[in-house]
Specification:
The protein has 157 residues and is α+β, with helices and mostly antiparallel strands. Helices cover 27% and strands 31% of the residues. The chain is built from three helices and seven strands; from the N terminus they run αβββββααββ. Strands 1, 2, 3, 4, 5, 6 and 7 form a seven-stranded antiparallel sheet that branches. A hairpin with a 4-residue loop joins β4 and β5. It starts with a helix and ends with a strand. About 10% of the residues have low confidence.
Length: 157
């Protein structure tokens, strides 16, 4: 009888530990910005209107510079909100969540390219809108447009 009780406690302990593990696919709430269906205007004038439509559901930009420095922009619209990240290793600027959205939403709104835009024109837009320095070594861009079409771009100087 005592072995059965120990066995039950061991199973419960294993279940509890499994339930408490860190799941790498879990959403980091610091990086999420809730999307409110009721609000069409920003709460204060410094915040972008996050309900204004963008051409993208996902936008991932990585610009590599000399000395192992990079600029990374991540934007992913999910059913429960928007995951946003901005990191510029050259200026030691890192923003996530709402702070990152305030920084990158106006830039993403300026992008006009679509799935049929020639690569050279996409490159021009990225260089211009993100003020890419001439010293860049490589640009990698992955986008998923609102219609679900995905495209990857790789640009070199």
């Amino acid at each position: 009888m005592r072995n059965r009780v120990n066995y039950v406690w061991m199973i419960l302990l294993v279940l509890i530990l499994l339930g408490c593990r860190n799941d790498p696919s879990a959403i980091n709430s610091d990086e999420m910005v809730a999307v409110s269906a009721n609000s069409s205007h920003p709460v204060n004038s410094n915040e972008p209107n996050i309900n204004s439509p963008l051409r993208f559901i996902d936008f991932s930009l990585d610009i590599e510079y000399p000395n192992d420095q990079s600029l990374e922009v991540e934007y992913e619209k999910k059913s429960i909100g928007i995951e946003v990240k901005f990191e510029d290793e050259r200026t030691y600027e890192k923003k996530i969540g709402k702070d990152a959205l305030v920084k990158i939403h106006p830039l993403l709104k300026k992008l006009k390219f679509n799935k049929s835009t020639p690569d050279a024109d996409v490159k021009k837009e990225i260089l211009s809108i993100f003020n890419v320095e001439d010293s860049y070594r490589k640009i990698e861009l992955e986008v998923k447009f609102s219609d679900g079409i995905e495209k990857e771009f790789h640009f070199y100087p």
